[in-house]
Amino acid sequence: MKSHEVDYKILGTDIQAVEVELDPDETVIAEAGAMCWMDDGIAFEAKAGDGSNMDEGFFGKAFSMGKRMITGESLFMTHFTNEGSGKKCVAFNAPYPGKIIPVDLSQTGKLICQKDAFLCAARGTKVDITFSKKIGAGLFGGEGFILQSLEGDGNAFIHAGGTVVEKELKGEKLIVDTGCIVAFEEGIDYDIKASGGLKSMVFGGESIFLATLEGHGKVYLQSMPFSKLADRILQNYKGEMSTGDDN
Prior knowledge:
Strand content: over 45%
Helix content: 10-25%
Distance between the termini: 64 Å
Number of domains: 1
Radius of gyration: 20 Å
Order of helices and strands: EEEEEHEEEHEEEHEEEEEHEH
Largest sheet: 7 strands, antiparallel
Number of helices: 5
């Protein structure tokens, strides 16, 4: 299915939203709970699947829902359709502070991303899961064997924590903290390896396992993964609770 051709604006600098403009009968799909505001005349409905395959039957939809359950995402996606006359807008925001990255899938091809990075996309975009080909990535990559894949010929939007850095690899190898990876193009080989010797792993303060990205294509990185932010908040909270108990 050819993707709908939606226009958009990225709003804000540090805690961003994306406003998508829909012509009559155009649809954008989004993760549950991502909508901020929308114009009158836009109808929304939770559906099983992304709508990229109109011929998909009951068992196909059930299989798609099962795969989304594996990733920990909502079983349903919300479809927003302009049922009015003239152009209408609907806006979406990320669940934590950071940046929104617009991706033209007709230019990048298939995009592989961490399972919580997808925000919204033009209808016709196939949102699926993919499995790491490397056993190390599956066992130690944080996201397990499962990553999300986005495929189509329209605009898709992913979000990241903190500042986003885009790198173009031309055969080089990049070593990255596993939580800092947002997405990468299909031409990138992804693996997980131990960060060093036992002493470095125990006392170095870095992650025990690091990701290696190698090949040809774009890589999107985030400076503040939500998992790292949550861990720091939890550590401080536990420290304050411990100090309070001593008093």
